[in-house]
Every structure is written in structure tokens, then in C-alpha cells.
């Protein structure tokens, strides 16, 4: 059985993919919780992730989809970095392989937070070593940087959109990853919007001959989702957009659906709507976000976008879940999706209050 665990960390991303044969792939890491604030319901990721890993202290892959703080915060203090002896304490979690989009490698230092700077240094160090890293897409600026650094472009180091990542395969691992983004031409000769050059993948899980698909679209806006749909159709690979599980992009922002929020429900761009129609039965839609508000808000999640996702779930006989509402807003816990020959199933537990839960301090007022 495979498993995907989503951590309740507010408007931020971190989820762990575990395969039936024991491989572990972490997507993003954002330790946001304020320890001294008793009203902060976000989980302590620096403790929750090691607990989920058990005795394991090495991840097969750590993938940072892009360099925003809500995808990298705290990474400098959590992971073992080969390029810096000061960041190599035994308790740190090691990364056998690091996945990053090309933009991550190329961004100027001034544009990156401290955690992202460290990750970029690690990616560049591993590229120079010729191992332990995979960069997604090869725009002109990356090829120029590789040439200047004396690094040859090989399948062992770089993957392009429209290809299957060679680090895993269905036959031995029961999982494969197909690259949808970034496209080299999106970046052109200059660096542009970080979210739009993020890592977007389709994961295919196989269990007893049954395939279950997942889409992991990072924080891309609707224009790029629409472009992915167009490009995939153009190449006759519509099956690469099939999904039974989707991590909703950008914390349920309407900007990942359309150019306008709508009054009560966002009406998606036609190509984006097509993507959401490619679900299987009992589809699972996961919003890695704060609770859905009842009024309009500037920042996501947006109630109109959530209304659309709920409608998709209803039509498929599936489920729409929010990480900071699972199982309750007052006590969010890990959201675990198990994947086997019956498809994707959100794990249900007995959430009746325990003595410890009853004794949990109430939030401070004022």
C-alpha cells in the first residue's frame, strides 16, 4: 500500500509520499508554527515529520517545488546539507536526492529568503558533484550556467517537461512521476514569476495492477494550468492529466482557476475546467490551507474557489478536504491518503476527544 500524508501547516505546503516498497519522497517543507502561541493550531512540522518517518533519517527525495517561504521555511535548520559542514548535525534529516525547478538554481541571492539560499547552494553543489540532484527544465540561462560551471547536461541531472522522471518506475517502485512543468520556453532568456515556473507533476501509483493517479500542481496560476492542458492535448497525452487525488494549487486561491473570483463560486477557465473533469470516481481534492472563510478575503483560501472544488467533489462522489480543518479546526491532524488496488482513501479515525484533547489549553483572548 502507498500513502500520502499532508501536514496541517496553514497556508503552506508539505506532504510525504511513501511507496509500498519503502521509498519516501517529501514535497516541500515549511515549518510555520509559533511555539509560544497556544492559539496557533498549525502542527510543529520539525517534530511531526520525524515522527512520521520513525527510525528513518534519510529521505529518498526532497522536492522543493519553488522557492517561496511557504514551501521552504525552516529547511536550513532541519535538513543535512552536504555543501556546509555547519549544517551536518547527526540529528538532521538527509536527502538522497534533491529535486528543484531550474528557476530555483538561477535566482539571485537577493531575491531568496535564507532557507531558499541554502537550498540553492546545495543544489548547485550537487550539480558540480554530478550526483544527488535533479533539476527540472533547461532554459538558456541554466544551460549557460552549466556550461560556465563545466557541468555536462545529462539525464541523471536534468528532466524536461513531457518526460517521465527516471528516478522511479512502476515495475520496481510502484510509482512514476511525469513532468508537466516548468517549460523551458516559459522562462525564455529572463527569469520570471516564481510560481509559474514551479514543479508540477503527475504521480501514477500502481497496486496489484490497478493504477491511481495524482496531480501535484504547486502554486501555479490558472494561465499556466491552462497552458499545461493545451500542451498535453497537443502531444496526445491526455492520460497524463488523469487524477484521482489532487493537491489543490495555491491554497485554494481563485487565481489558480480563473481571472475573476465570482460571486458565490469561481467559474474556471475552460481548459482548467477540463482538467478538473479528468477525475476518477470518488476523487479526493486536498486544500493545503487555512480553514475556508465565509466572507471575501484578500489572501487565500478563497470561499468562491472552495465552492467550485466542493462541486467537483460532489460530481465525482468524492471528497474535498482542508488540511487545517481535518478532522476539526480546533484540532487539525495529519491528513493521510492510502492508495491500494481500491484507489485513494482518506484514512478515517476515531476522533472522539481524548483526555489529552479535553485538557488542551484554550486559545488566548486578545
CATH evolutionary superfamily: Ribonuclease Z/Hydroxyacylglutathione hydrolase-like
CATH architecture: 4-Layer Sandwich
Give the total of domains.
1
Computed CA radius of gyration, to the nearest angstrom: 20 Å
In which range does the helix fraction lie? Answer: 25-40%
Q: Major β-sheet, in short?
A: 9 strands, mixed
What's the order of the H and E elements? Answer: EEEHEEHHEEHHEHEHEHEEHEHEHEEEH
Shape: globular
Please tally the helical runs, counting DSSP H or I stretches of 4 or more residues: 12
C-alpha termini separation:
46 Å
CATH class: Alpha Beta
Structural class computed from helices and strand pairing: alpha/beta
Chain-averaged pLDDT: 92
The quaternary state of the protein chains shown equals single chain
How would you sum up this structure, described in words?
The protein is an alpha/beta fold and about 375 residues long. The protein has a single domain (about 1-360), classed as Metallo-beta-lactamase, Chain A (4-Layer Sandwich). It is built from 12 helices and 17 strands. The strands form 3 sheets. It has a 9-stranded mixed β-sheet. It has a 6-stranded mixed β-sheet with strand order 10-11-12-13-14-15. Strands 4-6 form a two-stranded parallel ribbon. Helix 9 packs across helix 10. The chain is globular and about 55 Å long. Residues about 185-195 and about 350-365 have low confidence and may be disordered.
